[in-house]
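Write out this protein's structure.
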Amino acid sequence: MKRIDASMHGVQWVQTSKESFQNTPYSGAGDFDLVVVGGGFCGLSIARFAARENLSVLLLEAGKVGCGASGRNAGIAVPHFPGGMTVEDVDAQIGKPRSRKFTDLVAGGTEWLFEEIREHQILCDAEQNGWIQPAHSQKSLRRIERVYESWKANGVEVQWLAGDEISERTGAKGYIGGWYGRTGGAVNPYALGQGLARVALAQGVVLMEQTPVTKMHKDGGVQIVETPAGSFRAKQVVFATNGYTPGLFPHMKQSVIPIRLFQTFTRPLTPEEQAAVMPMRQTFTDLRKGGGFIRLDVDNRILTGGAVFNIPGKRSYGVRHSNRFIEEIFPSLKGIETTQYWEGYCALTESSVPAIERLDDNVFAVLGFSSRGLVLTNTLGREMAHFLAGKKPEAELPLPIGPAHPVPFQAIKTFLGEYAFPVLQARDRLRLS
């Protein structure tokens, strides 16, 4: 499968997006303070906040804005780390006090993002109705209780929900407890990317789509960025390419594990169905390894998904998985029609914490958002922009900057990732997740 698919074929978010931007073809000088590679949320965030600090910024996108993970994801704004990770786990990964800066970024990120959406009047069907992490098994309940206690002990506003309270809020069956974060919510992610591009252009960012970076080399202290549209000189370069990262520097591509995921949409629910299913429109994400997330879009379609099982007929396999999951938690929707299916890549780090890499003296990469990209890409991109503009010292960043380290056996893990889905589903069925 070709990684970059600018057509966005089958992605429902494109069909329902109310946002767009008008770009003027660029034909100016080729010298910039900063070149950003990647036109997803992270690249757009870095570019627009750097431009606000009066840097001249060129953003290069190999396809079209949002055609990667940013425009293809579930659009769920999660006020939490991946899975069952706690504040204390992050402390152990990167150490205090920096870990607490990262914790603050995660805890406050959803509120900040919805404020940005309101300030810039981005038409992305934003709904800030809260987010729930429910437990589907006794094992997951113990992990989720630990998460809840961690956030509560660290002063974050969270609420514990019993199983019947989760059922009342979501209409879902089978959950035995969980916690609620009021700042979470959902957006149309493709529309959000289009709106952020509109904002970036208004702030002076030069944006070039269909312009992949093919080569880079140094000329004194300046980076020469070569593309099919010509070469550009940059005082600094930052890659924000996540699961679509090229191998232009040693270990760069191998520092994350790209995971191919799928999303499915059902037909719109009837008013009667929606009154029983997700009555409060609160999104949720459980700890199932095979994908345990549900949300409604603006047309009351149910979105869910999982990891791609790379076999002939993978689409029908993914659709069957989605249908079984929906039927399990919403028995009244047994047999509901699936109308859309699409795929895309995210990127995992071994620690589940994003990485900021120094690839050369003035070349960086920000990647590995491990399924929490909707919010973290925007907030960490903002912080990176302040660093690149000289407004924030490296020691004040929420994550350390280090060299690109290859993930051990990265190629094997990437290959096996496309065949692991049945194993993950079996663990879920046996309540081992």
